[in-house]
User: Which sequence fits this backbone?
């Protein structure tokens, strides 16, 4: 699923959900969650993330800071976390960062 945000947004919540074989994975109790974000120019940023449980499942999330969304275009996101002795990656997703008018 592609999330749409705007360049320069601060306080925007970016979420990732772990999916395996088409099913949502419960990552409650997971640790060391990070979100890797590849910008359109190829730079990879690392965002520290937290895990939250909601009615629709568990998510890794981060809240954007001043310099996070600094490039317009399609970004590629991937989460990494540890759960019950396993450390690995979530499926990749896209983040569409659009320019603002002002």
Assistant:
């Amino acid at each position: 699923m592609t999330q749409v945000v705007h360049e320069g947004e601060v306080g925007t919540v970016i979420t990732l959900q772990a999916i395996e074989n088409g099913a949502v994975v419960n990552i409650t109790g997971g640790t060391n969650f990070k979100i890797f974000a590849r910008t359109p120019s190829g730079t990879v940023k690392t965002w520290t993330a937290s895990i939250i449980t909601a009615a629709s499942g568990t998510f890794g999330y981060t809240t954007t800071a001043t310099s996070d969304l600094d490039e317009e275009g399609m970004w590629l996101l991937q989460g990494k976390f540890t759960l019950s002795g396993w450390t690995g990656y979530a499926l990749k997703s896209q983040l569409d960062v659009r320019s603002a008018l002002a």
